[in-house]
Structure formats: structure tokens, C-alpha cells
Amino acid sequence: MEENKKNINYDCIDYYINRELSWLNFNKRVLEEAEDTNTPVFERLKFLSICSSNLDEFFMVRVANLTDQEKHGINTPENKAGMTPTQQLNAISEETHIMVEKQYDILNNQILPLLKNNKIIFLKSKDLSVGQAKFVHRYFYDQIYPVLTPMAVDAGRPFPLLLNKSVNLAVLLESTKDDKSEILFAVVQVPSLLPRFIQLPMENGQLNFILLEDVICNYVDFLFKGNRILSVQPFRITRSADINLDEEGAEDLLEEIEKELKKRKWGSAIRLEIKKDMEEYTRSILLESLEVDNKDVYAVDGPLDLAFFLKFTQIPGFEDLRYQDLPPQPPLDFMGENTIFEAISSKDILVHHPYESFDPVIHFVNQAADDPEVLAIKQTLYRVSGDSPIVNALARAAENGKQVTVLVELKARFDEENNIVWAKKLEKAGCHVIYGLVGLKTHCKIILVVRREKGKLVRYVHLGTGNYNDSTARLYTDIGVFTSNEMFGIDASYIFNHLSGYSKTPKWKKISAAPSGLREKFIELIENEIEKSTPENPGYIIVKMNSLTDKKLIKALFKASNAGVKIDLIIRGICCLRPGIPKVSENITVRSIVDRFLEHTRIFYFQNGGDEKVYLSSADWMTRNMDRRVEIMFPVEADYLKSRLKNILTIYLKDNVKARCLQSNGTYIRIHPKKGEKHVHSQLYFHAMAVDNSRKIKEIPYIKQLKPRTHIE
């Protein structure tokens, strides 16, 4: 038996799932939520929208990258599942066409009829009443017509360079100039700054809407007077949007990224979306002009770009068509103290978002900005909200004369422009803004506050699994820990000195960090579990994270499984590990939870022969996180916090409402309660627990200053 274990080839491609196909499987689970009849209809529409916007990013980055490889003749298999770029692109095309077909089937045959039952109807121009037609006529001339620009395509005017993700109209015309009939072609871009859906005057108690492109289609002849309109067809293109940056050769990183962002709008077209009834002549013009293959054309039965429905679901009223509100609760551990610093001094504090409020994090920075005893604030920023109270507090702190150092990650994909704005604002306020290390994204989440207390300097630290974004903190599940432990304070200082200066990788007191040592630490913990595992008392590992793609870590899990260690993986998105393979992964289970909140926490539990170890991290087990990002993992040492995290993991593993289990064939099966078994809905459980805790606030004083200031005064 031992000899068989040694001879197992853990590099066998049959043991792995292709990354891109695993991601598509995740998006299928998102789409399942749009199909779930137990989900309110507006929320189903949100999931349909999220599925579409997910596909946009997938094509702009992942498909674009594979397409570039294929065009440059790179057709070697990737190292895990052994698929070449061409094989991946073909499989992606097949799977995505099926997915898009299902999207529109759900929209047309389930969601729109339900909206109609609730007197919410999308109309076409031909269906408008006389009063509605008059309204649309005036709206077109007052709000739309002045913005439109018809773009003819002929020998002297080439096909226009159209914006990424823009909806456009392909117009086929017949010219009768000089009594000669001639077929002409033109393009009209649907203005992205105008509302995509237009509310019409209410009639018969119904809330009626019409899409912007439908209005323009109906009036397009006003743009081409003297010609006969043969057809008007919407289409949409998706372009490559990855940034190719030479960081070492860039004299000014901020300026270089600004240049690259401008190029992103005009990358090569990699997907064309059209309506199913588009005639072949128009289709052929678009294919030739955009240089798109037939397999990259998606013909749909409905409006293009379903992502707009996310904004539509925010129309006022109709609360019965949405999830019941689950407002974040005040964290229990902040009760009984006068200031946030007193609370953190008394014990380490864990906050579970979004069930518990993000306000303490905002308040931590706000109070530090105004406290005369605080000398310095240092923080990493990866993604922040549009009007970030944390950024405003940091700017105010600098204006108050404090030493403020902020690492703003300019390369956070699709947040680059937003982060450039914040970086400039912080610099203007007097903050020392740094952009991290060449070739690496700084993805760790950490705040360090240095405070003078009784003649000594005390370091207060916040470490988290998620971004310092007050908006997404209400939508993503994350965990943050506050501590005044001196060892964590020393490590926090090491991190910022390493990021801002020339210091070598330090000898950490508590944390582990990527790109030097984090993967090795995880492998060490897995191997330690193997060493302490016995047939009588087998080892146990629980890992909760967003994605698992790193081959070295997967192989370590295979070895642990083969040694008898029980492994439960809770992975929301991509999972390249194939579970349930005899002698390889038979002791590994993988489950995914897709629900109203985006599962984002990264928790790592190791039984360690009874001396349990629990860690939190900013990193998923992806190769990019281990090799190309600055990440941190930190232990949770207080017994009461370890117990709380174990309980959180236990509830996730018991979820039988929103959990799906990965099979060895790569498919996911939804877990349902067995007969007589109690329904466990993890996200609702965590919120109910937070509500129960918040009721105790009536009995114990809560920190009064937990109302954050949101603007510079």
C-alpha cells in the first residue's frame, strides 16, 4: 500500500479541471440562482445581470489572452489539465453558447412573465398607446436626437472604431440618389450616458418601459433622410481589455497606466453579440469589419447586454420582489468601551461582514485621523468605493499633520481609473502615496495606526480578507481582525517598510507573506497535518476561499488525502482539483456556495493533532497570488476567536440550501436537505446570529463614536 502511494503520478492531467471551464461552471451556478423559483424576481434578474457582466470580464481578459496565444502560434498545452489554447477556446465557445441560450430562455420564459404578472412590462414601439407614442416622440427629440451621430461606411469612410462593450445599431439603407438604387451601410452608437431603459407614462396601473435602442431604431430614418431604411439591427462588441505594462521601463507608473487605459477601449474584438433575426448581409459586413470568427458570434433572442438589468432592479417600490433586507449589525466585541482603541487594547476583535457592520473599520481610521495622540497611519488600498470615507479620513489625517502612508494599487483590474483619482487626491492632501513593488500587485489588506500612550508608542493593526470598500462590505462576506498585539504591530511595520523602501524580506513574527514564503507555509501546514495524522485520529483540514488553481498546493492536498487526512474545501469559484479519485483525492470534498452575498472570506483550519491552528488571509490558492502578488496570511490565536471561526466553517459545511458539491466528473450537484433534516441556510444563519448579539447592546454601552465622518471638514 505504501509503495502504491509513492508511485502515484500527481501530475496526471486526469486529476485536474481546466481553469477556464471551471470558471464557466461557476457562472452556471450564478445562472442557477436566476432560475431558482424560491428567489424573488428582482433578485433573479440581478443574478441574470451578474452572469452577463461576469461573461464580459471573462471574454475581455481570459478569452482575449487565449486568443492572443492562438494568433501568435502558441499552442502548447497548459500544465494542469493539458488543454491547448485552441482546445480551450473551442470548449469555451461551446459551453458559453449553451449558457447564453439558457440566459435568454430564463429571461423570456420565466422572468419577464413574472414581471408582467406584477404589472411591470417592457414594450416595443409598435405596442405603444397613442399617449405613450407622443411621450416617446418628444423624448426622442428632446433627449436622444441631439446626442446621436450617424456614421456612414463606404470607400472614403472606413468602419468606425467602436467602444468596448458599446451597443450599436447596424443600419442597412437603400439610396435613391440620381435615380440610381444603391445599398448603403451605416452605424449609430447607442449613447452609453443615456438611461438604457425609459419609463413611460403609466396606463391601466401598469409600469411600462421601453429600451433606448428600440426608440432609436424607430426613429433612425430621421438620421438618414433621403434614403430608405431596409433594416436596423443592434449589435455589441467585446474587446480585449488586458493591460500590457512594462513596469521596469516606466519612468512614471501612474502616467504609464493612464496611457494603457486609453488603449483598453480599442483592443481587438473578441466577441460579437447580435439579435437572432439579423439578416446575413449585415452579419457578413460586421464579421469582416470586426475580424471576428463565426464561433465568436452570439445571436440572442432579446436585448443585448443584460447587465443593465442590475440598475433596473433598483427602481423604487416593489419591496416584495426583492430579498428581505438584512442590515449589518453592530459588532458585539465593541461594546462596553469608550473608544475604539480601548476596545482593541482589551482583546483581539473579529468582525464578520456583512452580517456585522463595516463601520468600526471606517471609525478606526476616522478616530485615528482626529486623535492628537496618533502619530502615523499606514494603509493598503486595492479597491475602494466611489466616495470613500476611508480615503477622506486619510486625507484629513495628513492635513492634521500626521504621517500618512498609503499604498494604492494602480493595477487593480478595472479599478485602475478609480484608484488613480484617489492616488492624486491623497497626494494633494499631503499623504505619502506609493504604488508598490515592480511586477507585483499589492493585494494584502492592512491598516497600521501608531499611537502615543503614556510615553510609549502602541501599534494598532487591522488585518482583513477583503477590500477597504464600504459599498462592497455590504455585499461581500469578509472577516477583519483588530489587534494591538506587539508582534503583529512589528510585522505590520515590516510590511510597509518593505513596500516603501529597499528592505529585504523580513523574518516575520506572526504573519506569512507572498511572493516569498506563503505557498511554502501552506505546504508546511499540510505536511504537518500528514505527519500528525493516524488511522485512529486522522488529520483534518478545512479551507474556505474563492479559487483553487495552484498545482503545487493541489498536489500537496492530494498527498494529504492519500495519507488519510480528511479535507473539506469550500470554494466559491474556480476549482482545478478533481475530488473523489481513488488513492488521489478520495478524502477530499469540494463545495461551492452561491447566494445573495458574494462569498469572499479566506479561512484555513488545521487540526494539528488537537492543537488547532486557524488562519485568515487575503490570498486564494492561485498561482498569481503566490507568485505575483503581495499577500499576507495571519494566525488567529485567541481561543474565543478560533472557536468562532470553527463555528463559521461548520455552518458552511452544513449548508443544504445554497451549497453545491463538486463531483469527480467536474459537475456540481446541489445539496438538498434529507428527509426530516433541518434546513441550514448559512448566510441567513450568520445574520440571525449577528442580530441576536446586537440585542445585547441594549444592556451594555456601545462605543458612541461609531458614526463615521464621511467628508473632509
Per-chain topology:
Layout: H1 2-6, H2 19-35, H3 41-71, H4 85-117, E1 120-122, H5 130-144, E2 150-153, E3 167-175, E4 182-189, E5 197-199, E6 207-211, H6 212-219, E7 227-239, H7 253-264, E8 269-275, H8 280-290, E9 297-300, H9 309-312, H10 340-346, E10 349-353, H11 359-370, E11 374-381, H12 389-399, E12 403-408, H13 416-429, E13 432-434, E14 441-442, E15 445-453, E16 456-464, E17 476-483, H14 486-500, E18 512-514, H15 518-532, E19 540-545, H16 551-562, E20 566-571, E21 588-593, E22 598-599, E23 603-606, E24 613-617, H17 623-627, E25 629-635, H18 639-654, E26 659-662, E27 668-670, H19 682-694
Parallel strand pairs: 1-6, 8-9, 11-12, 12-13, 14-25, 17-22, 19-20, 20-21
Antiparallel strand pairs: 2-4, 3-4, 3-7, 5-6, 7-8, 10-17, 11-15, 15-16, 16-17, 18-25, 19-23, 21-26, 23-24, 24-25, 26-27
**Overall number of strands:** 27
Strand content: 15-25%
CATH-derived topology of the domain at 332-510: Endonuclease, Chain A
Q: Could you report the average pLDDT, rounded to the nearest whole number?
A: 90
Identify the CATH architecture of the domain at 332-510.
Answer: 2-Layer Sandwich
Percent helix among the residues?
25-40%
Shape: globular
Pairing-aware structural class of the strands and helices?
Answer: alpha/beta
CATH superfamily of the domain at 332-510: Endonuclease Chain A
Radius of gyration: 28 Å
Mind describing the biggest β-sheet? 10 strands, mixed
Helix count, per DSSP? Answer: 19
CATH class of the domain at 332-510: Alpha Beta
